[in-house]
Amino acid sequence: MPKQTLRLGVLATRRPPVTRWGQAQLRPSGVLPREPDLAPHSLISNENGVETWYLGARDMVLFSGDTSHHMDNLNSGRPSVWVVLRGQDPALCDLACVTVDPYEGEGFASDLEATVEAVPMPAVIHDAVAAFVAAHHVEIPFKKRKRQPVDPNAMQSSAPRILPPDEKWHIRGERK
User: Fold this and answer.
1) Does the residue 51 lie in any domain?
2) Residue 126 maps to a domain
3) CA-CA distance, 12 to 85, in Å (whole number)?
């Protein structure tokens, strides 16, 4: 199965809490088409309490079997990259997954421990995904199965619906 691996850098934004009882939120905000010369978990900027962090790089793998999913993403009104984070501390959080498969991204959304965000897909990544889809997509035609007509009187069942008493399962100690 052909596959292609792209290494993407991930940016996240940490906003201060809205109330004094709340907590700061760390959310993915973008991806970089190339891995920058920064250490993972580096603070890039801090403007009025809104911090931008470089969380590190992650491999995104495109598989030829998923090209129809990638086409759905590319043909949507807003092509996206799904980023999955575990943890809210930018210095310790785990970059769990980066994907352009919308169904894989949606699957991570049910994980209560993860933060999943669909961030805009940069043009360079869009072009790479589109080239991969063009090279490896195979259209599979839909075939509706048709039921075979069955004559209920001609059929012989392989087993009777009610077993005779000597073929039934019995609980230990129970009399037949």
Assistant:
1) yes
2) yes
3) 10
CA gap 128, 102 in Å, rounded? 17
Please give the Cα distance from 8 to 36 (Å, whole number).
9
How many Å separate Cα 65 from the centre of its chain? 15
- Report yes or no on 156 lying in a domain: no
pLDDT tens-digit readout, 85-109: 999 888 889 999 999 999 999 999 9
pTM here? 0.77
- pLDDT tens column, 36-53: 898 999 999 999 889 999
Beta strands in the chain (DSSP E): 3-15, 25-32, 42-47, 50-63, 80-86, 94-99, 114-120
Element (H, E) at 43: strand 42-47
Task: State which residues form the domain around 108.
Answer: 3-136
